[in-house]
Prior knowledge:
- By secondary structure, this protein is α/β, with parallel strands linked by helices.
- The chain has 16 helices and eleven strands.
- It has helices at about 1-5, 15-40, 55-60, 65-70, 100-115, 140-150, 175-185, 215-225, 225-235, 240-260, 275-290, 295-305, 315-320, 340-360, 365-370, 375-390; strands spanning about 40-45, 70-75, 80, 90, 125-135, 155-160, 165, 170, 195, 265, 335.
- The chain has a seven-stranded mixed beta sheet with strand order 2-3-4-1-5-6-9, sandwiched between helices. The protein has a two-stranded antiparallel ribbon with strand order 7-8.
Amino acid sequence: ASGACRRPAIPIAPNLGRVTQWFTEAFRSEFEKQAAQLGRFNLAVFGKTGVGKSTLVNAIFGRDVAATGVGSPVTRGLVYYRHPDGFLGVYDSEGFETGTAGDAIVAGLQRLVADHRTRPVSEQIHAAWYLVRWSDRRFEAAQEQFVRELIDLGLPVIVVLTQVPSRDGQVHPEAAQFAEYIASLGLPIRPHGRVVMTNALADPFTGSPVFGLQALLDDTYQVIPEAAASALTAAQVVDVGRKKKAVAAIINQAVVVAAGVGATPIPFADAALLVPNQVTMIARITAAYGLPPNRTKALAVAGSLVLTGGATMAGRYAVTGLLKFLPGGMIVGGAISATVASALTKAVGHAWANVCEYAMSLDETQRAAFLDSPQVTERFLGYLKQAQRVGRP
């Protein structure tokens, strides 16, 4: 609520251009603030060449960070890639082999970890995945030593078997035996000394499906600081349920604020008082779903067209155009009550969440095209109309 109060007032008698400009600036400012509060999840990924690091990272986060991010060497054999979205950073040991190269990485990491412990949480390494290709069927002494040294640095290390074939829900028995062997070494790997078996890319020839991604993600949540969990939720694309849970809390908070605005019924003409709270809400929802900040202008334009509708009074469309989507669809006594304000805000929040969830279901190219198109507005209104059909008796 305090953030909404600091925002410039909505133009009293605006044209569409002025309303859109106000909304765009307010949305982008709020989105940047919310994204900064989410911070960044930083993951270190290790494993021999060909183990499938990029494939696994892409499967969990829906993006090839090394290909699209900004990379900078941080120590010998290790490059830090920060994805432009801002929610994900990956320390990648491309071409990593144990032995001399591993010793150099550990030495560099020791300095890196010590330095970053004094920095904000968003700059620390939150988890490390050590990947082993199941078909190697060997876990060498040098690999074991490297994992132990990572753990000694204070990093929570998860050991992951990659490219594991399965059929009818059963993993290859030799892969299961290999995982048990690694676990039997007594390495203090997280979260419970177990090895996670995964296959990040379906194999149409053998029929082996993608599996193990949710288990790996769940284990990662268990070992990272609580302060990094929100950024991980925004960055990952595997568990939509976690995003929905975070968004439900955001909508509920906005509903409470809206109820406060309408606690003393406000006149119909003052409906614009609801819009700043809704701007904050949809910006927070957008950030929670991890949508890219370079698309915020397109999203803001869509939001402004829906919440203001280009009417002569900002917010008038929100009441006349959207209130009919709510159960009852009436303004008692020409005023907006706490009940109406809450219901309207809740409907807008859920509709926007559905837009974001649809966008996340697309691949990167399709998502970019969608977010730059009028389909955002069309889907937003479509979801509100669905709420009307569901909500009315």
